[in-house]
Amino acid sequence: MTTATKNFRIGLLTLVIAVMATLADPGFVQGESTPGTPGNLTVTVGDTEAKIAWEAPAAGDCAVTEYEVEVHQARELIRASQAMTVTDWTLDGLTANTTYRATVISYGESCDDYSDSAEQNFTTNANSSTSDPVRGTDEAKYVPDPPRNLVITVGDTEAKIAWDAPAADADTCAVTEYEVEVHQARELIHASEATTATEWTLDGLTASTTYRATVISYGESCDDYSDSAEQNFTTNASSGPGDPMRNDNEAKYIQAPPSGVMITRHGTSGIRVAWTQLPTPANTCSPSEYSVRLYKDGTRVGKADEITTTYWDFENAYTADARYTAKIESYSDACNEYSDRAARLSTNVR
C-alpha cells in the first residue's frame, strides 16, 4: 500500500467518525432553519420612554414573518411586546437616567427556531420635567407620580404598609388607586387588590424574615403605572401565640389562595379566566368570593369583584397573540380578609 493511499484511507475514516459523532449529538437537528438576525438596531430615548427600531434581516435560512422585543433592567425582564410585523416599537413608563437592554428577535412561520437576537443597551435621559422628546407635548400627562413616605410597621407574621399620596404635579396625571406587592427575594408572594386607601395590612408572613414592599400608583386617565415606591422590611422574631398587631382570638384569619389558573379565549372576542380553590386547611376560613384583575400586554383591561364562581368572562378583551396576566384573590366574610397571596398566571392567548 502506498503512503498516499494510506493517508487517504485515514482521512476518510476520520471524516466518517466525525459525521457519526455529529449525528449522534442530541443538540444536532438535521435541516434546522433559522431566520436572519435583525439589523441596524437603534434606540431613541426620552426620560421615561424609548423607541426601538431595526431593519429586516438581509438573509437567513427562512423568511421572517414577525418580531418580538424584550427589555431587561439588569437581569430582570420588565417589558415584552406581542408578536408584530412592523420594525419599531415604542414603550413608556421607564425610569429616567436608567440603563436597560433591548433585545429584538425575529421568527418565521417556516422556521424551526427563533433567530439569534439583536441586542443593544440604552440609557434614558435625566428627568426633564417637560414633555418627552419621543412623545408630543399634548401627550405629556401619562404617568402618575409614585407614592411618598412609605412606612412599614411589623409584627412577627404581619405587616402594615402605609404611604402618602403623590404630591399634585401639573406634568402628571391624577392617581385614582394603588396596588401593593410583597416579594421575598425575587418571588412575588403577596399582592393586594386595587385600593383607594393609603395603607394595606397583610399577614401569613414568616417571623425573622426580610421582604420587599412595592406600592404602585395608577390613574384612570394615565397611560401606565407609576414608578413604584419600594422598601425592605424584616418581621420580628416569633413572640409565641398571637401577633402584636392582631388579637389572639383572630387566629383563623388566612384562607388558602386560589390555584390552577387558566386563561383561554372565550367565544370570538372574550377572555375567560378560570381557577380552582384549594381545600381549606385547619385554622383557616373558607373563601366566599373572589377578585380578578386582567392585564393585556402589561395594561389592565378588566377587573371584577365579589365573584362567587371560580371563573369570570371578560367580553371584548381578546386580541390575537397578546400576552395576558390574571391575578385572582379569594375573600372570606368569616375572617374579613383576602387570601394571603394572589394567584397569578401570564400566558399568550392565540
Shape: globular
Number of helices: 1
Fill in the CATH topology of the largest domain: Immunoglobulin-like
Poorly predicted runs are 21-31, 129-141, 240-252
Order of helices and strands: HEEEEEEEEEEEEEEEEEEEEEE
> Strand pairing plus helix content: what structural class?
mainly beta
Backbone CA Rg:
26 Å
Got a strand count? 22
At the fourth level of CATH, the homologous superfamily of the largest domain is Immunoglobulins
Just give the CATH class of the largest domain: Mainly Beta
Which range best describes the helical content: under 10%, 10-25%, 25-40%, 40-55%, 55-70% or over 70%?
Answer: under 10%
Provide mean pLDDT, rounded.
Answer: 76
Q: How is the quaternary structure best described?
A: single chain
Spatial separation of the terminal alpha carbons: 66 Å
Gross CATH architecture of the largest domain: Sandwich
Strand content: 35-45%
Total domains, how many? 3
Major pleated sheet: 5 strands, antiparallel
